[in-house]
Amino acid sequence: MPPSDSLSINGLTIKPGERVLTRLVISKLPSGTVIDVPVHIIRAQKPGPVLLLMAGMHGDEVNGIETIRRLLRRDLLQPTRGSIVAIPILNIYGFLNFSREVPDGKDVNRSFPGHPRGSLASRVAHRFMREVMPLVDFGIDFHTGGAARANYPQLRCVLGEDDVTDELATAFSAPFTLHARLRAGSLRATAHALGKSIIVFETGESLRLDEPGIEEAIAGTLRVLHHLGMSAAPGPVPARPSIVCHRHRWLRARYAGLFRAWVKLGDYVEQGQVYGSVSDPYGLQSVRLESPMSGYVIGFNNMPVVNQGDALLHLAVPAAMSN
């Protein structure tokens, strides 16, 4: 973390007690319109950790964007020590085009640490790594399900390998906490290589607001701020303890056709339970789908037309059942 009397970003020096909005210029559209990323920096008078709150890595994932917007609008980000770096939208290109990717078709979250002369996605990642990552000690990266897939509110991180990440996950206390391995080129993996802990919160479906998930995200963020000693308020008490899952798996379609689910997000499915059916569109055949395992439905494909191999349900097995 930088010295308590100095925090520099985008050519600015931000002093303790200051609140600044700066804009990181990424590039220009073909029209010449400048594309920049707004970054909020909120500093307490007292020194402490720097917490990153970031959303919009994928431009169509609006729930995280709305989460940070509400935290800012409700004036809930007032650290008593340390600093908060809040980025509501990293991928401005995708946000403008209702798209997960940037215009070159690449995923920013597979492009870290990036390169100043690389693809557009790589340049976005590089600018973030140059300007923001050096400041950060911990982070929460907000995401949403994509491609007609909805996620039940869940936290993803590597569990059991370092105390800091485990403590952040426990403090956030999402309805589900998943052990999720690092993926090459992701922000989480790149931060891990630098000794910094980033946890990922997922909820809802792309291009649709998920009100319960947004409120879970806000509550979890406030609990993390309290855990880090950045807020005196403890944050809302979770409705129930987080269900920790070390195993999770997508069930995939063995047949093409029209998928109808007989369960919903959050339901518990027993091994052998019929969870839906796939039918041909002509009324000639229908196949009942039985679950090969027991677990909670934490992800759901809302697309009724499916091909062989398409993901249908994401099931998570509680840690107590994995032994």
UniProtKB/TrEMBL annotation:
Domain Succinylglutamate desuccinylase/Aspartoacylase catalytic: 47-228
Cofactors that this protein relies on: Zn(2+)
Keyword Repressor: no
Keyword Hydrolase: yes
Alphabetically ordered keywords of this record: Hydrolase, Metal-binding, Zinc
Source domain of life: Bacteria
SUPFAM superfamilies, A to Z: Zn-dependent exopeptidases (SSF53187)
Record-linked PANTHER family: BLL3975 PROTEIN, SUCCINYLGLUTAMATE DESUCCINYLASE_ASPARTOACYLASE FAMILY PROTEIN
Official protein name in the record: Succinylglutamate desuccinylase/aspartoacylase family protein
